[in-house]
Design brief:
The chain is of the alpha/beta class and 428 residues long. Helices cover 45% and strands 16% of the residues. It has a 6-stranded parallel sheet, sandwiched between helices.
Length: 428
């Protein structure tokens, strides 16, 4: 297992960052054809793609999850999982409740009232990945902020297995949140079904949740017809570490992201060159016992890197350039670096805060900006599922006070009808 090594912000490192995971253009025509088929053939196109991509036989009778499916799922899970998922629900709900915005109205002395009112979206679709692994945690991270926002209708889609059933852990997570409208479909075809509707599936206002490159392209194609949370790419982690960091922890955390996908990116940035060798030894040792060893090896070889900087100041600069999805700060005094970190989806401070505590349990959302988009994107929050309307009420006195200025601005822009709509009130 060979991992690239770079010195600080070298040209070689910058070129490594700029290398694309995949050229989306080569996939766009195929995804567009899937969209065309879903639009023209509705449910039957979904069933055909379920068979083609997931090997699952679905039809109008078994397409939507039934109460019997949910009961069967509960029989397959263990009590320890149920305890864990319920505690995670409590933590994630408590965190997102703090994000909820309040509507406001503010009058002035003339009687004019200005304000803003926040409303939840009516109906949203949450995409929960399947394929190489089950992600019940993604059910929670999608649905809980939507529920806190007050969304009335939440519909979930996730790929079925070859037996036509959904993963029981994913299904129980949805049931624990009271989600009852669940469809057995994944991939690009499920995105088009949610966005445009079929005979069975009613269209949504927004789709939230990460998926593979086909899902991402489909979300990009439907954006504008509906809203989306973000365009998520492969998972990534960057760790800033100094000489105090435990090499075993560093290796374990790098691999925790590498196991997601052969395209996942894992970076260690340190000012201690000797730490790199120790981490390499730990990687070789720990990987032998991990179930997704092959995926981890391919991921680290293609998208793993060690970056040695002159000091922690440069380490933070490197991190801000990368703008990682997950940033671990594993240094002796992590809070001292916090003010220097400007671009990151989620920041994990200290050696006792590995990335999985955020993925599953602590409370913050794990649907995060990837591919450097943390420079301008935020994690999924309650705001993702909320829209705002401005409130404007002018009293007669308020309009008279401001009329001349409004008319002037309209005339400067050459919009005489705008000016007239104010002038006619002033003159009358």
């Amino acid at each position: 297992m060979k991992i690239r090594k770079f010195n600080g912000k070298s040209e070689e490192f910058m070129a490594f960052l700029e290398a694309n995971y995949a050229d989306m253009k080569e996939y766009e025509a195929g995804v567009a054809e899937i969209g065309k088929q879903v639009k023209e053939r509705g449910n039957q196109a979904i069933f055909d793609y379920n068979l083609k991509f997931d090997g699952a036989q679905t039809n109008n009778e078994n397409f939507m999850v039934s109460e019997a499916d949910i009961d069967e799922a509960y029989e397959k899970i263990d009590d320890e999982y149920l305890i864990a998922i319920r505690r995670a629900i409590d933590n994630i709900t408590e965190f997102h409740l703090k994000q909820k915005r309040n509507s406001w109205l503010e009058p002035d002395e003339s009687g004019t009232i200005l304000g803003q009112v926040y409303r939840p979206l009516q109906r949203v679709g949450i995409y929960v990945p399947g394929g190489t692994a089950a992600y019940p945690s993604s059910v929670l991270m999608n649905a809980i902020p939507a529920q806190v926002a007050g969304v009335e209708e939440i519909v979930m889609v996730t790929p079925p297995g070859k037996d036509g059933k959904l993963n029981p852990y994913t299904l129980v997570a949805a049931a624990e949140l009271g989600i009852s409208e669940i469809y057995k479909m994944g991939g690009a075809h499920s995105v088009f079904a949610l966005a445009w509707g079929t005979e069975t599936v009613e269209k949504v206002d927004l789709i939230s949740g990460p998926g593979n490159i086909y899902v991402t392209i489909a979300k990009k194609m439907v954006y504008g017809d509906i809203d989306i949370d973000m365009l998520a790419g492969p998972s990534e982690i960057l760790i800033i570490a100094d000489s105090s960091a435990d090499p075993a922890y560093l290796a374990a955390d790098l691999m925790s992201q590498a196991e997601h996908d052969v395209l996942a990116r894992s970076l260690l940035v340190t000012d201690d060159a000797s730490l790199v060798e120790k981490v390499e030894e730990e990687l070789q040792k720990q990987i032998q016992t991990l179930s997704r060893k092959d995926i981890i090896e391919k991921s680290l070889e293609s998208y793993g890197a060690f970056v040695v900087t002159t000091d922690m100041e440069e380490a933070c600069e490197v991190s801000n350039i990368v703008a990682p999805e997950h940033l671990e700060v594993m240094v002796e005094h992590p809070f001292e670096l916090l003010s220097k970190i400007h671009n990151a989806g989620a920041i994990f401070l200290g050696e006792n805060t590995p990335e999985p505590v955020g993925d599953y349990y602590a409370g913050p959302n794990h649907i995060l900006p990837t591919g450097g988009t943390a420079r301008f994107y935020s994690p999924v929050t309650v705001d993702t599922f909320t829209k705002a309307s401005s409130i404007i009420f002018y009293s007669k006195q308020g309009l008279m006070n401001d009329a001349d200025q409004i008319i002037k601005l309209a005339e400067v822009e050459g919009l005489t009808a705008h000016a007239n709509s104010v002038r006619i009130r002033k003159e009358k």
